[in-house]
Structures are given as C-alpha cells and as structure tokens.
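User: Good morning. I'm curious how nicotinamide-adenine-dinucleotide would be positioned relative to this chain. Could you predict the structure with it bound?
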Amino acid sequence: MSAPELDGLVAIVTGGASGIGAAVAMELRDRGASVAVLDLDPSTAPEGTLAVQADVASDDSVRAAIASVVSSLDRIDIVVNNAGIGAKGTVEDNSDAEWQRVFDVNVFGVVRTTRAALPYLRLSPSPAIVNVSSIAATAGLPERALYSATKGAVHALTLAMAADHVREGIRINSVNPGTVETHFVTLLLEKAEDPVAERAAVTARQPHGRLVSPEEVAHAVAYLASPLAGSTTGTSLAVDGGMAGLRTRPAARE
Ligand SMILES: NC(=O)c1ccc[n+]([C@@H]2O[C@H](COP(=O)([O-])OP(=O)(O)OC[C@H]3O[C@@H](n4cnc5c(N)ncnc54)[C@H](O)[C@@H]3O)[C@@H](O)[C@H]2O)c1
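Assistant: Good morning! Here's the predicted structure, ligand included:
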C-alpha cells in the first residue's frame, strides 16, 4: 500500500476548532498530515490534532503559537489561513472600530500567520499556503460591505504573495466558498428579521440549490495544499455551487 498523500507533512489550520476549519483539519489529518489547530478557543479542535490557543489578531500570540507547533511537531509544511469573522451592513452601518476589528482578524491575521510561518515553510520540500476567502471577494452581495472588503483584500494578498514566493517553491492559493452550513452562517441568519426567509434566500442564490458543506470546502483546500498540486499557484478555487460563474434561469414554477 502507498503512503497517505500528506504523510510526513505538518499543517497548521487557523480557526480550526469549528466549521470549515475543523473540516479542513480532519481532512488533512485523514490524508496523513500532522495537524495543529490554532484557535481562540481550541477546546473543540478535532481529535488527533494538536490544539494550540492563538489569537490571529495578536502578533505575539501568533508567534508564540507557531513556536509551540514547531517545538511539538518539528516543522511546518502547510498553512491554512482560515480564521475569520463576519460582519453585516452597508458601507454606512459599521463604525471605524468595527472596520478595524474585522480587518484585524480577516486580513492582518493572514499576514501575521504567514509571516511567522514563512521561515519554516522555506525548509519544506513541498510548502503550500491556502487562504480561505469567499464568494464575497468576487461577487457583490448586499449588506456585506465590510466583510467583502476583507475578503477582496485576501484575494489580492493571495496573488501578491504567490508572486513573491513562487521562486522559493512556495505555492499560495485561495478557496472562495459560497454560503456554507456553519456556526458563522447560523449566527448571521439568526440576526436577520426573518431567519427562515433569509435561509431560503441564501439557499436559492446558489445555482445548485443548497448550502455548501464544510467537507466540500475541505476537499478543495486539501487539493491545493497537496504536493500533487505542485503546478498550481496564484489561483482561487470557487466552491459555491456555481454562484460566481453561472447565470441560470429561475426554476420553472410548478
Ligand atoms: N460559512 C460560510 O458561509 C463562509 C463562506 C465563505 C467564507 N467563509 C470563511 O471561512 C472561514 C471559516 O468560517 P466558518 O464559517 O467555519 O466560521 P466559524 O465561526 O464556524 O469558525 C471560525 C473559527 O475561527 C476562530 N477564530 C475567530 N477569530 C479568531 C481569532 N482572532 N484567532 C484565532 N481563531 C479565531 C473561531 O474560534 C472559530 O473556531 C472564515 O474565514 C470565513 O470568512 C465562510
């Protein structure tokens, strides 16, 4: 039998204790990687992963977490920048403090984690970074001004970092999920005036007619993280039921 695809590699997943990040951590673990979960609350990190407390909004916290991963697992080959928080509203609705808070996690968190991990990625035979962006980076969605701005920044940052590090052999890609069935989405739906109607609306806007599962996003991340994707860098992979690219006709009435 051949060795599992990610055998011998060490991956870190920020925000890996819940939702998409937890699904990614389990997928990478099941493909043979040793996985460290860096999370504000790592108590629910998936079984068989190294749980490390970390706040991606703090440079000291991220650096301490990376040092602790290397001291336990010796190396870092794969970084999945997944930790992120939501925000609702038009450009008029959020305070400056809220804009700073969401950028601090969703964008600067990617910068801090990548910056701290790069010296170790340079030592890896197959280094890869996967950033979790969003459909909101490529399609205008109502009442997501702040959130979309952060994910657009992650999209641009992915391309710029991919260009900077391609000659070092470090591949950097992103995934753009549509609406995924997670805690994050449940919270947003609960805040809507009519949560049932809101759920029906977000489901209907995905051409395949349902929400995306965290496991589907995890498979896309694992593909981009794998040495098997050695020629793929600077791309963004949509996992959105066709939402970004398709223009379907409304379903026919009964
Ligand atoms: N759920 C969706 O529909 C959807 C769609 C597109 C993109 N995304 C993106 O996917 C990523 C994960 O979202 P999710 O839906 O799984 O969310 P989630 O709320 O279920 O999980 C997010 C995890 O990140 C952790 N986290 C939050 N702030 C952190 C910080 N400062 N430092 C460290 N960890 C922190 C949380 O503790 C939690 O475990 C986010 O970047 C989000 O923007 C989600």
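The mean pLDDT is 96. Helices lie at 19-30, 59-73, 96-106, 108-121, 145-165, 183-191, 195-204, 214-225.
Let me know if you'd like a different ligand tried.
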